[in-house]
Automatic annotation (TrEMBL):
Gene3D superfamilies: EreA-like, domain 2 (3.30.1870.10)
Tree of life domain: Bacteria
CDD domains with a match to the protein in the record: Ere-like (cd14728)
The protein's name in its UniProt record: Erythromycin esterase-like protein
Source organism of the structure: Kitasatospora cineracea
Length: 407
C-alpha cells in the first residue's frame, strides 16, 4: 500500500460515500460487479437509509421487473401481504431470494408507517419484464393500456379490443424458452407481432396526446404510461429475439438498456419534486461508457443505460461503482490489477476518490484489468476511472449461489 493509495481511501461509511456525490444529483446510481453477493445489497441498504434520513431521498429503483415491482411498492406503502411472498414474487431474476432485498422492503415499510403519505418511500423496478430465458408477453400491458383509454376516450379513437386479444393470443407463444437461442422459435416478427407494434404505437400516441386530460388521476396515469413503455419495449425486444443476423445479441442488449433508461427517466419525472432517486443495478448497466462483453471470438458493444441517461440529464447523473477483492473459496485478484492493489488496504470496505485513485495507479504502474475467474462478474477497468464519481471496494465476499453466482 502506497501513501498515494492511502490518501485516496477512506473507511466505508454512507456519509463518506455521499461526500463524493456532486450537488445537483438527481439520479444516484450505485453499481455492483456481480449479482447474488449479499455484501453489495447490505452496502446499498446502508446507503439508502442514510440518503433517506440525511439527504431527502424518497425513492429507490432496482434492477428488477418494473411490473412485478408494483406489488412490492404497494406493500411498502402499507398494503396487506406477507413479506417473504411479496419479495419472492415482486423481484425478478431470482433476486427475491436475497436476504438483502427482504431487509430493504421490511425497512421501507417500517419507515412508511411513521410518515405522511407525501413523504412515503417508493420502490420501483427499473428493468423490463425480462429473464435469462426470454421476455414476458406484451398482451397484459397492452390490454391494460387499451382499457385505461377506453374508459376515458371515445370508442372510435381506439382499435378494437378483440383484435388486440386475437393477435396477442396465449402468453406462452411469446414466452417460449427455446426462442432465446433459436430465432425461428420467436413470434416477434410474425404478422401478428408487426400489427401489434403498430397498435401499441397508436395507443401510446393517444395516451401522450391526451395526457392533460388524464393528469388529475396521477397514479392511474403513471400505471398507463408504464404499461405503454413496457408493451412497446417488449414488442421491440421480441422482434430483436426473432432476428437472425450477426447483431442479434447486441440488439437484445440495446433494447434492454433502453428500457431501463426510459423507466428511470420516467421515475425521475415522477419523483423530481420529492427528491433524488437511488438506482441499484449492475455496473455494466449504470456505467457512463459503452458496455463491452466478450462472447466467443466477438465483442458485444452497446450503449449502457447509464450512458443514455448521462446524455439526457447530464450533471444530474452520478455513478458510484463497486468492486471486490477475494471471493471464497479461491478467487483472488492478481497483485498487478486494480483489485489486487486495493486488497492491500486494511479496511474490509473502502470508499475511494477516483481521481486520487487514478493518480495512485500512475505511481504504482498498475494498469491491468482483472480477468474474471468465471462468467459471473466483471472487474473494474482502471482505464474507466475518469467516468466514475466514486468507488467502493469490498475486500472479501462469500461465494454466491444460484443463476448469477454460479453456485
Amino acid at each position: 500500500m502506497t501513501p498515494q493509495l492511502r490518501a485516496a481511501a477512506r473507511p466505508f461509511s454512507a456519509a463518506a460515500l455521499t461526500d463524493l456525490v456532486p450537488a445537483g444529483t438527481r439520479l444516484l446510481a450505485l453499481g455492483e460487479p456481480t449479482h447474488g453477493a449479499e455484501e453489495f445489497l447490505d452496502l446499498r441498504n446502508e446507503l439508502f437509509r442514510h440518503l433517506v434520513t440525511a439527504h431527502g431521498y424518497r425513492s429507490i429503483a432496482v434492477e428488477s421487473d418494473c411490473l412485478a415491482a408494483l406489488a412490492v411498492d404497494a406493500y411498502v406503502g402499507g398494503a396487506a401481504g406477507e413479506l417473504d411472498t411479496v419479495v419472492r414474487e415482486g423481484f425478478g431474476h431470482g433476486f427475491g431470494e436475497s436476504a438483502g432485498n427482504r431487509e430493504l422492503v421490511r425497512w421501507m415499510r417500517e419507515f412508511n408507517a411513521g410518515v405522511e403519505e407525501g413523504e412515503r418511500l417508493r420502490l420501483y423496478g427499473a428493468d423490463g419484464p425480462l429473464e435469462m430465458t426470454g421476455a414476458a408477453a406484451p398482451g397484459p400491458a397492452l390490454i391494460r393500456l387499451h382499457d385505461f383509454l377506453a374508459e376515458r376516450l371515445p370508442a372510435e379513437l381506439l382499435p378494437e379490443r378483440e383484435e388486440l386479444l386475437r393477435r396477442c393470443g396465449p402468453d406462452d407463444r411469446w414466452t417460449e424458452p427455446a426462442a432465446a437461442l433459436d430465432p425461428a422459435r420467436s413470434v416477434g416478427r410474425t404478422a401478428d407481432a408487426d400489427r401489434l407494434r403498430l397498435l401499441a404505437d397508436e395507443l401510446g400516441l393517444l395516451l401522450a396526446a391526451h395526457r392533460p386530460q388524464f393528469h388529475a388521476d396521477a397514479d392511474a396515469l403513471w400505471r398507463a404510461e408504464l404499461d405503454a413503455r413496457t408493451a412497446t419495449g417488449l414488442l421491440r425486444y421480441h422482434a430483436a429475439t426473432a432476428g437472425d443476423g450477426p447483431d442479434r445479441i447486441n440488439s437484445l442488449m440495446r433494447q434492454r438498456d433502453l428500457m431501463i433508461a426510459d423507466n428511470l427517466e420516467a421515475i425521475l419525472r415522477r419523483e423530481g419534486r420529492r427528491g433524488p432517486t437511488l438506482v441499484f443495478a449492475h455496473n455494466r448497466h449504470l456505467q457512463r461508457e459503452a458496455s463491452r462483453i466478450p462472447l466467443g471470438d466477438r465483442q458485444l458493444l452497446w450503449w449502457s443505460a447509464g450512458s443514455l441517461l448521462e446524455s439526457r440529464i447530464g450533471d444530474g447523473y452520478t455513478f458510484l461503482a463497486t468492486t471486490f477483492g477475494h471471493r471464497a473459496p479461491d478467487d483472488h485478484p492478481a497483485p498487478d490489477t486494480l483489485e489486487g492493489l486495493l486488497a492491500t488496504l486494511p479496511e474490509p470496505r473502502t470508499v475511494l476518490d477516483p481521481g486520487l485513485l487514478a493518480a495512485a495507479l500512475g505511481e504504482t504502474g498498475v494498469v491491468r484489468a482483472r480477468v474474471p475467474a468465471d462468467h459471473t462478474y466483471f472487474g473494474l477497468d482502471p482505464e474507466a476511472l475518469g467516468w466514475v464519481d466514486g468507488v467502493v471496494f469490498v475486500r472479501d465476499i462469500a461465494r454466491q449461489q444460484g443463476l448469477f453466482g454460479g453456485g
